[in-house]
């Protein structure tokens, strides 16, 4: 005789709340800072270092800092005999406040700076939807951002559409840093992909050319590439022809970054299992269909950290354009150190802290977006 089943539930159990130790601040501290004796020792040492450094840093950066003023007198210690040039109270943020517009725009004419602001608004309006995975019309967005926008931005910044000409030697500050970075990133990724594919090609001539380019460019520092672009490139031009210094910097930075990008992408291509290539061949796909639809999407996903690392390095390396007479953010900050009206012992340190913080903001943002994209594209497969 069959027995009656009486232990089958009609309702699912309600989910249990998370353990208190994992869902509270105390639990997080125990798990991440006090889990083992080694963690406890390192946490105590870290707190001791913070206790030693943090009070002085806060006093220098905020509490004792001079925030507003017309000249160096607000940043120097005042005694009975007058200003003591060798003394100071804290950071001289009045210097940054006084030169802030120059740090952003360089020597771009004051009455024409609305053009830079308009380009910045257009750039943000096109970039933000491009970075949001669920935003629609990615193809149109990419066309506007990488094809239409650079053309319009060039005519707005340099001159055109009836606007006055602003020569590139007047460009500077954060504007130059962002332009060099954007162009370098936009050019180096597709060019790096082509170089990586060419290096793995079965055609000897294509492979040799790609290998020579990658190894030569990676074998020299960026400052050498910029110097060669500035000095040697005009020698290959017809008589009477010249190339703008800023364009030379764009070419040099883009080519340099593309060589490093090629090796990053090549690492991703080599990590793809052989079965993926064989499966694509079994479907009768052509080389470009196989590469575009199957191989590259997987390869690029695998090397997102390396790609973003190259972008971050490129963003910081833009400061080397000072070798050819262009002044990016760091260059324009250092240029203002020679201003006698702001000559104090803390002026250089304050300016460098400001420049470093701006660089950190952009690099940290790229790093966080990289982590977000890794989580978004994670398929759950563990290697």
Description:
The structure is a single chain. It contains 15 helices and 4 strands. The strands form 2 sheets. The protein has a two-stranded antiparallel sheet with strand order 1-2. A two-stranded parallel ribbon has the order 3-4. It has helices spanning 20-23, 25-32, 37-63, 93-105, 113-131, 138-158, 174-199, 204-218, 222-231, 245-271, 274-282, 287-302, 304-317, 329-335, 347-377, and strands at 76-79, 82-88, 172-173, 327-328. Among the domains are: 110-165, no CATH class; 171-377, MetI-like (MetI-like fold, Orthogonal Bundle), CATH 1.10.3720.10. Helices cover 64% and strands 4% of the residues. The protein is mainly alpha-helical.
Question: Main attributes?
Answer:
globular, two-stranded antiparallel sheet, two-stranded parallel sheet, 4% strand, 383 residues, 15 helices, 64% helix, MetI-like fold, mainly alpha
């Amino acid at each position: 005789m069959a027995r009656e089943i009486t232990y089958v539930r009609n309702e699912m159990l309600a989910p249990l709340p998370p353990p208190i130790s994992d869902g509270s601040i105390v639990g997080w501290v125990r798990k991440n800072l006090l889990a083992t004796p080694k963690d406890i020792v390192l946490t105590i040492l870290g707190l001791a270092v913070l206790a030693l450094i943090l009070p002085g840093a806060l006093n220098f950066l905020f509490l004792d800092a001079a925030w507003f003023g017309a000249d160096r007198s607000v940043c120097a210690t005042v005694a009975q005999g007058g200003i003591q040039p060798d003394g100071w109270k804290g950071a001289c943020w009045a210097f940054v406040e006084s030169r802030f517009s120059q740090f952003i725009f360089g020597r771009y004419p004051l009455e024409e700076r609305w053009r830079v602001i308009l380009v910045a608004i257009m750039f943000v309006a096109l970039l933000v939807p491009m970075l949001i995975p669920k935003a629609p019309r990615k193809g149109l967005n990419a066309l506007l951002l990488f094809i239409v926008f650079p053309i319009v931005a060039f005519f707005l910044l340099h001159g055109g559409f009836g606007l006055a000409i602003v020569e590139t030697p007047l460009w500077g500050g954060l504007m130059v840093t962002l332009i060099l970075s954007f162009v370098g990133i936009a050019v180096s990724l597709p060019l790096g992909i082509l170089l990586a594919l060419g290096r793995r090609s079965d055609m000897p001539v294509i492979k040799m050319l790609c290998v020579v380019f990658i190894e030569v460019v990676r074998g020299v520092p960026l400052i050498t590439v910029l110097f060669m672009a500035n000095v040697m490139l005009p020698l290959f031009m017809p008589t009477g022809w010249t190339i703008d210094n800023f364009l030379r910097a764009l070419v040099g930075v883009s080519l340099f970054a593309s060589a490093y990008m090629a090796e990053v992408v090549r690492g991703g291509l080599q990590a793809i299992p052989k079965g993926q290539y064989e499966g694509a061949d079994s479907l009768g796909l052509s080389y470009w269909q196989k590469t575009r639809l199957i191989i590259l999407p997987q390869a690029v996903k695998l090397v997102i950290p390396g790609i973003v690392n190259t972008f971050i390095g490129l963003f910081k390396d833009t400061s080397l354009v000072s070798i050819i007479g262009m002044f990016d953010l760091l260059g324009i900050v250092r240029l203002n150190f020679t201003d006698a009206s702001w000559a104090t012992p803390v002026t250089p340190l304050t300016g460098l802290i400001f420049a470093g913080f701006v660089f950190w903001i952009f690099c940290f943002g790229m790093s966080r977006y990289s982590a977000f994209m890794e989580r978004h594209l994670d398929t759950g497969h563990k290697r």
